[in-house]
Amino acid sequence: MYLFYTPDIDTNPFLSEEESAHCVKVLRYGRGDEILLTDGRGTTYTARIVNPHPRHCQIEVLRSEKQQKHHHFELHLAFAPTKNIERVEWMVEKCTEIGADVFTPLLCRFSERKQLRTDRLEKIILSAAKQSLTPYLPQLQEMQPFLTFCRSWRESHPTADAFIAHCYDTPKTLLRDAIQRGNDTLLLIGPEGDFSQEEVDEAVRMGFKAVSLGSSRLRTETASVVACHTAVLMNE
């Protein structure tokens, strides 16, 4: 079954223009057909098509149900975007499918990408969430300087687990061994040139735990996927 995204379904009984076109033109749904929708905040709706217009498809909600999240903790991925934007898009898509709840792009000392448009990434996140049939749409935040983000996040999440993955030859714990089941989790993944030593040291001083993702040296986008999957898997 296909999942349609309708954030204002409570007050507006129409699909968006994009969703209407997909529903009516691509999937060929017609009058009287039932479809599944979500508001992106955890509620799913079973609805009947009243008017299958290809630009503003009208629907009638039959019933709604609040859904449980796939996992009972918040998974936040903060990452330094790569110079190649296609790698960033692939990573965001896969991490959404795996179960990331929040994405925050970081501006680090060795970052090669200093700016990031979020509109296309938001569309990719939405598409991946619908493909995965998740009723909770992940959040995408604006790019933030590394230390500014770390300080503000720690202040607002004093009891959550925070991990920084890096490649320096200093003491680290395997992420799979550091995960505490059920705890909200932040994962920090650095740029293609890694975090600077100063960034790592400052994060550790703020209580972030240095972790390894294994013996292989991973690209930024691969490390992000591995880290997200590890966090979700260890919470199964």
Q: Number of folding domains?
A: 2
- What is the H-and-E element order? EHEEEEHEHEEHEEHEHEH
| CATH class placement of the largest domain | Alpha Beta
The gyration radius over C-alpha positions equals 20 Å
Name the CATH superfamily assignment of the largest domain: SPOUT methyltransferase, trefoil knot domain
Q: What is the tally of beta strands?
A: 12
- Cα distance spanning the termini: 25 Å
Mean pLDDT: 94
Instruction: Classify the fold: give the CATH topology of the largest domain.
Output: Alpha/beta knot
Instruction: Please count the helical segments.
Output: 7
Write the CATH architecture name of the largest domain.
3-Layer(aba) Sandwich
SSE-based structural type: alpha/beta
Low-confidence stretches: none
Notable features of this structure?
single chain, 236 residues, alpha/beta, Ribosomal Protein L25, Chain P, Alpha/beta knot, eight-stranded parallel β-sheet, four-stranded mixed β-sheet, 12 strands, elongated
